[in-house]
Amino acid sequence: MPLSPIRAARAVQILAARAALTCGLAHPATRTLLAVAASVAARAWEAGHRVHDVHPAPQLVQKDALVADDLYTRYMKAFQALNAHRAACGTCTDAVTCEAGAPLDERFTRLQDAYRARQSKQR
Q: Which of 35, 58, 49, 57 is nearest to 3 (CA)?
């Protein structure tokens, strides 16, 4: 029984990727497998299968990456806000924070701790 167009496309794609890793992109076997993979993927497309059928997107990885990026963005904005306040305030330093700068310092510290904790989990 022949493979479905999607399974055939995935199988040839995996073979081409393995050839590229082991032999390099310039090797004739790699180039041949890449051409076959493109041809099989085109036939799958013509049969009504779309790219996301051949290349399913890993949902959790993308979602985690977006969450991590959002945390980093908030962390950097808190850092910038705290530095802007310290530059304008005459009493704030790295060691001493005025009453108006305390919430900014607290937010920055909390976000920095969360970001560093996430980074240490990824290692």
A: 49
